[in-house]
Design a protein that fits this description.
The protein has 16 helices and twelve strands. The chain is an alpha/beta fold. Strands 2-8-7-6-5-3-4 form a seven-stranded mixed beta sheet. A three-stranded antiparallel beta sheet has the order 9-12-11, covered by helices on one side. Helix 9 links the parallel strand 6 and strand 7. Helix 2 packs across helix 12 and helix 4 runs parallel beside helix 5. It is globular, with a radius of gyration of 23 Å. The relative contact order is 0.15. Pfam families: Aminotran_1_2.
């Protein structure tokens, strides 16, 4: 290696500063002895014995090869990839689909090229995933955020306007004539389920608003279904299909690394859009295609889910969501702690993701892990300041007893954390946050 001393010194300084701010990231290896309340494996399919047997059997196929040998445009395309795209698209009620190596690459490829002309605009929910932001940066389109899940209402909790106000302003702005005439394209990016709050997008309201403000049909809604694929809707088809909104959505991104228990992603779209992405999506064109083992895993899991064999898991997960939320919601009041110390959202959970809001997210997470439960603290800047939380993810493999054990651990922490000396610390932190 060349001389890296000076650069390493710069990096070390930056890492030290991040560490002093409590934001240093580290790689950790999950402890299999811990109870998982952290991963995105919502249906616990990644370790299912029946899926494992079917997958290993499929690997004995004469078609097996360890890798694909190249990008799909050169030597990496296979009949299995194309048939898998067609069957997954049909399962989700879409005309066509295009596989990507990950959800990140799917969003980067789609958003990086979908706006074909100057004057096109990308409007996005302020809480969309980082991969959407990275894709939009590759685009020539103007980027405009709107307040999270705020379609027409008051956006006082956010510096951004509602979707309705944003679209109205665009129609009156610099390229307003082209937008009103239907010439310029307006792409609207949302997620069906948001990964940090676990809340659902008001998809029907969004579609109605887009159609009203862009009556020429030049509003194109893109829905990232990463956190709804596999468990939401009939047979886990996702929120768009569950609500029957396929005709109001231009493109969907379904990923396989969460509830589906494997890896990869697909963009569902029209056949013409699929051909366009093959020609312009850089994260597809310039990367090695998935090999047979990855494709076989996706095929195996989809067959399992399509057959209905995951339905008992889905039903158990949905029951566990309601039960866990009910127990957690009572903890703060039972222990007499303020909302800053601990609270959960009031309404029933829309997903297996239940955020536990607290100003002491790291302390709570460490306490739970010390009791044998894996949970993760999520703090600013990953989430907006003042919304630190422990992100609780439920799984079909979790039991009611495990949920009660976690809640007991949280209750014990609350009793200790709200002693007089701890109360002074919380009040001091609250005072500093107001400065």
């Amino acid at each position: 290696m060349g001389n890296t001393g000076g650069l390493d010194d710069i990096y070390s300084s930056l890492l030290a500063r991040r560490s002093s701010e409590g934001r240093l990231r580290r790689l950790t290896v999950p402890d299999p002895a811990m109870v998982d309340f952290s991963s995105n494996d919502y249906l616990s399919l990644s370790t299912d014995a029946d899926i494992r047997r079917a997958y290993l059997s499929r690997l004995r196929s004469p078609s097996f090869s360890l890798g694909s040998g190249g990008s799909r445009l050169l030597d990496g395309n296979t009949g299995l990839a194309e048939s898998l795209e067609a069957s997954i698209a049909a399962f989700h009620g879409a005309p066509a689909g295009l596989l990507f190596n990950s959800g990140f690459e799917a969003n980067v490829g789609l958003f990086g090229c979908c706006a074909p002309r100057p004057g096109d605009v990308m409007v996005y929910d302020e809480l969309v995933h980082a991969s959407v932001h990275d894709g939009m940066r590759l685009s020539r389109a103007k980027r405009v955020p709107f307040a999270h899940n705020c379609v027409r209402g008051d956006a006082r909790a956010s510096p951004n306007e509602s979707l309705d106000r944003v679209l109205t302003a665009l129609a009156q702005g610099e390229h307003g004539t082209s937008i009103r005439a239907g010439g310029a394209c307006v792409f609207i990016a949302v997620e069906s389920i948001y990964s940090m709050d676990g809340d659902a997008a008001p998809l029907q309201d969004i579609i109605d608003c887009v159609r009203e403000r862009l009556p020429r049909g030049n509003g194109y809604l893109i829905v990232d279904e990463a956190h709804s694929t596999g468990w939401a809707g009939a047979r886990g088809r996702g929120m768009v299909s569950h609500l029957g909104l396929e005709d109001g959505v231009w493109a969907r991104v379904h990923t396989f690394g969460k509830a589906m228990g494997c890896a990869g992603a697909i963009v569902l779209c029209s056949a013409t859009t699929r051909r366009y992405l093959i020609n312009y999506a850089r994260s597809l064109i310039y990367t090695t295609a998935m090999g047979y083992p990855a494709l076989a895993a996706i095929q195996t899991v989809y067959e399992f889910v399509e057959s209905g064999r995951a339905e008992r898991r889905r039903a158990h997960l949905e029951g566990l969501m309601r039960h866990a939320h009910g127990v957690l919601a009572s903890l703060g009041a039972r222990h007499g702690v303020p909302a800053e110390m601990f609270r959960v959202n009031r309404g029933p959970p829309a997903s297996p993701i239940i955020p536990l809001f607290t100003t002491q997210a790291r302390r709570l997470a460490r306490h739970c892990e010390g009791r044998g439960f894996t949970v993760r603290p999520i703090v600013a800047p990953t989430v907006p300041p003042g919304t630190d939380r422990v992100r609780l993810c439920l799984h079909a493999g979790n039991t009611v007893d495990e949920v009660h054990g976690l809640c007991e651990a949280i209750g014990d922490w609350l009793r200790g954390a709200w002693k007089p000396e701890a109360r002074k610390t919380v009040e001091a932190e609250r005072g500093q946050s107001k400065l």
